[in-house]
Amino acid sequence: MSEPLAEEMAAEVLGGQTDSAGPTGPVSRGEEEASDTRTRGVWIDAWRVLRSKPLFLISIGVILILTLMAIAPSWFASGDPNQGSLSKSLQGPSSEGWFGFDVNGRNVYTRVVYGARASLTVGFACTLGTTLIGIVLGSVAAYSSGPVDSVISRIGDMLLGIPFALAGIIVLSTLTTFDTPNWQVETILILTIIVFGWPSIARVLRSTVLVTRNADYVVAGKALGLSGSRVLFRHILPNAISPILVLSTMRVGGYIATEASLSYLGLGLHPPAVSWGQMVSDGQPYLRTGFHVLLFPSIFLAITILAFVLAGEALREALDPTNRR
Amino acid sequence: MLKFVGRRLLQFVPVMIGSTIICWGLVWALPGDPFRGRCGQVVCSDQYVQTMTQRYGLDQPLPVQYLVFLRNLFTGNLGETFSGQDISAVISQALPVTARLAVLSILIQVVLAVSIGIYSGLRQNGFVDVTALFGSLILFSLPVFVVAFVAQYVLGVRLAWVKPTVSPAAPISELILPAAVLAIGIMATLMRVLRASVAEGLHADYLRTARAKGFSERRVIGVHLMRNVMAPALNVLGLEFAALLGGTVIVEGIFNIKGVGGAIYKAIQDREQLTVSTMVTLVIIFYLVINLIVDVACAQLDPRSRDV
Amino acid sequence: MLDDSPALPGPVLAGAATEPALLEVRSLGVQIRTRRESIDIVRDVSFEVARGETVAVLGESGSGKTMTGHAIMGILDTPPAYISSGSISFQGHDLLKMPERRRRDIRGRHISMIFQDSLSALNPVFSVGFQVAEVLRKRAGMGRREANARAAELLDLVEIPNARNRMRDYPHEFSGGMRQRVMIAMAIALEPELLIADEPTTALDVTIQAQIMETLQRLCSDRDMGLILITHDLGVVSEFADRIILMYAGRVVESCVTAGIFTQAAHPYSRALLDSVPQSAHRETGLNVIPGAPPDPREVGVGCAFAPRCSHAMDQCLVAVPPTVTVAPGHRSACLIARELADHV
């Protein structure tokens, strides 16, 4: 999992957006309302396209079910994910345990359901954090230009120079030990990803703002005496939102994969918390005798990530004006 | 071109300094005891702490500490692992194995991604294209360790086509499976970028010009289109190097390969945080250097990027 | 030098007893075919070009003039564009019946083209010198050194200052006018008999426009080269063209010698076009614009495509396409009242 794919896709949207922004023609006094309906129109159009895409609807359905699983796992599975009877150790799937039992005789299905929480918490929290910080710092950089811009951009470059999986390894192995409480581990993990993840959002936003800022209709809006903040919120940000939305949606999957990989390496959550990466790692010695122990958490992980990537992909196609016709 | 290289080097220096400061800061400057866990479950002896403090200059002001860190990094004075092995010796032993794995993996992804990506770009919405496009999203969504386990189980254990783990000598034949696993996620991205740039290039005016000159279709596509597609592809390959390097830690761990990634994996399992952070810092520096080279190569391929 | 390749058979090039026109386009039709519909972009277009002659194909954007040029070159984007009818014969040989191999050999060697947007038409990742020399290396079998020397000469010939030193520069490092000169150098490298120039000066400043056109004209007369000048600019046409082919919605509506359109325009569209050119005489009366807009090629009916905008339109105009009539030697018009218009100056 990595960012360039998502960034490239967002860039496609970005390109399309600015193209559509270009020929928006001369500005009259009624321009403000016109631009409003134009922006709204994009979203309505996008929704119309999305509604008829089965893959998008399935992805959203999967994401909703997983979210529900994370919030209320007991609705989906009965029993305690950490309780097991050794007599069932490594038993394969059966009517009693759909996904079989792990080496400690714990129900793998129950554990997979309870594992959703760790993945989705990290996914959503990191997305929220990187997007918010990215938007704020990106627009500050684009708007202030000069030294503030270069400082933000250079810091972004440095952070982007460090792949966040590697950063996660350094930070977690330095700051946590076996006895660090799980909530601390999770917070540290989320903060690390946010710190190393915001620059790519900020970069996209900055370039969109810079392009839009010079678009004729924005220049005209300023010439007509609209205030700076009005121009920013009414005209510039709406244009920047869709590439950010696409990029962010796709990256939820990336954050989840990072969490799982770090947990797999033994750097993430540890028992009694349940996480898919950790389940795979625990099942590793039983590759030959109990492959189901590894298989089911892997499948859930892959489906979760795929759901976010597909949703992002559908969103990109729907928001790309060159694809609509 | 020389001017571009100079300017790019000038930009590289602050990024390099910044990145190493970040790595160093994470390990040494954050509150907490850098020797925690160094001596296993027991608390380190005062004498040990003293020698280490001196060695890393921890009694000096922070900027000096950073310089000591840099000096140690570049002189190969990287300290010792838990079991008393010299870290630089471990790395120099492991490096050839990882290099083989990485080169093999890049070869696999380039061959597959280039052939599938270009083919589906030329025949958009054909069977291969649609399959590849959807397949790439699935491959892209699979975390490396999942692919590694499935491959190891199915090909290594179930079908027994390959040995599930790699022997210490790590001959090329045994590295093919891990290299392919490593290639899969990255390949998906490369393939999509290639497809997109081929599809875009096909409608470019310069191709029409090349046809108007009466060149054969082979030259039109093979020279005029391909040269335009190479720079973005190379760029992606450079950026995806991060995923490759991160992936080696997991893949070498799973397949028990005695490379740099495997050494990092083992150090993580053993909670040797100093060894982990030192090695990862080196990996990051390597990544930055690779991307510098990629940038220069891209500028060589596409003159327009020199003016940026 | 170039004739060692398997080109056209000797007698034709040498000029047989009855010399055919350099290029003869007969009833050419081009269609865009999509899954749902096929749209006629070029309909029943016929014209000739002689050696050394400059023929202007004049029309608004969307009138099918560029498609006509691409069809002659054999570089239509197929799919979706197809030649649906007609013939294009070059020195007596039907290009449309040739195997692709021979067709390809004619491109660049006997018929060349220069394009409107020189920035996107030149390959951005190759140096200008490479792109000019490439034609000579691949098509004329020259060695690298010889090709480079000749490329420099060609760039010199199209008046690029300091040509030898600019060989290694890339297209984006040239100005628009200089880039267009590079395009010209590439197009004439193999000394073709016919050059198609698609809006060669549209993207350029007025002063540069004139310089480029003068260069083109000089090269054409030096080499006795036929030139098809695709343009929408009446000014350029009046100054540089020998004959005019006026297109509207995919059809030729009027064709005549250049002076003819100014002295006895025989189609309401040409008249309207002339009236819409700003002239000092219009200072008091204001500019005459043609009411309405050119039709969507999908919506052209059975009759005259110009009828909805025509001030002389009659009921018959909507029933069938008006036949083409000859109003004077070499002057033809597709209008029911062509003769009346021609006589009424």
Task: Summarize, please.
The complex is a heterotrimer of chains A (325), B (308) and C (345). Chain B has 308 residues and is mostly helical. Chain B contains 12 helices and no strands.
Tell me what the structure shows.
The complex is a heterotrimer of chains A (325), B (308) and C (345). Chain A has 11 helices and no strands. Chain A is mostly helical and 325 residues long. Chain C has 2 domains: 49-64 and 101-110 and 193-345, Rossmann fold (3-Layer(aba) Sandwich); 118-189, no CATH class. In chain C, the strands form 2 sheets. Chain C has an 8-stranded mixed sheet with strand order 6-7-8-3-9-10-12-11, with helices on both faces. In chain C, strand 11 (325-328) and strand 12 (331-333) form a beta hairpin. In chain C, helix 5 (128-140) runs parallel beside helix 8. Classes of the chains: A mainly alpha (325), B mainly alpha (308), C alpha/beta (345). Chains in contact: A-B, B-C. At the A-B interface, helix 1, helix 5, helix 6, helix 9 and helix 11 of A face helix 1, helix 5, helix 6, helix 7 and helix 10 of B.
Give the number of DSSP strands of chain C.
12
Largest interface, with Cβ-Cβ < 8 Å?
A: A-B, 50 and 62 residues
Could you say what the CATH architecture of the domain at 87-268 in chain B is?
A: Orthogonal Bundle
Kindly provide the name of the CATH class of the largest domain in chain C. Alpha Beta
Beta fraction of the residues of chain B? under 5%
CA-based gyration radius of chain C: 21 Å
What general outline of chain C do the C-alpha atoms trace?
A: globular
The CATH topology of the domain at 87-268 in chain B comes to MetI-like fold
Write down the secondary-structure element order of chain C. Answer: HEEEHEEHEHHHHHEHEHEEHHHEEH
Task: Give me the Rg of chain B, rounded.
Answer: 23 Å
Give a quick account of the main beta sheet of chain B: strands, pairing sense, barrel closure.
Answer: none
Q: Give the CATH level 1 class of the domain at 87-268 in chain B.
A: Mainly Alpha
Order of helices and strands of chain B, N to C? HHHHHHHHHHHH
Distance between the termini of chain B: 12 Å
Shape of chain B: flat
Keywords:
heterotrimer; A: 325 residues; mainly alpha; MetI-like fold; elongated; B: 308 residues; 76% helix
Layout of helices and strands, plus pairs?
The complex is a heterotrimer of chains A (325), B (308) and C (345).
Chain A: H1 3-21, H2 31-51, H3 54-71, H4 108-144, H5 147-160, H6 164-175, H7 182-213, H8 216-223, H9 228-264, H10 276-283, H11 291-319
Helix pairs in contact in A: 1-7, 1-9, 1-11, 2-9, 2-11, 3-4, 3-11, 4-5, 4-7, 4-9, 4-11, 5-7, 6-7, 7-9, 9-10, 9-11, 10-11
Chain B: H1 2-29, H2 46-55, H3 62-75, H4 87-122, H5 127-141, H6 144-158, H7 172-202, H8 205-212, H9 217-239, H10 241-254, H11 260-269, H12 273-301
Helix pairs in contact in B: 1-3, 1-12, 4-5, 4-7, 4-11, 5-7, 6-7, 6-10, 7-9, 7-10, 8-9, 9-12, 10-11, 11-12
Chain C: H1 10-14, E1 23-33, E2 38-49, E3 54-58, H2 65-73, E4 81-90, E5 93-94, H3 100-109, E6 111-114, H4 118-121, H5 128-140, H6 144-157, H7 163-166, H8 176-188, E7 194-198, H9 206-223, E8 226-231, H10 234-240, E9 243-248, E10 251-257, H11 258-264, H12 268-275, H13 282-285, E11 325-328, E12 331-333, H14 338-343
Parallel strand pairs in C: 3-8, 3-9, 6-7, 7-8
Antiparallel strand pairs in C: 1-2, 1-4, 4-5, 9-10, 10-12, 11-12
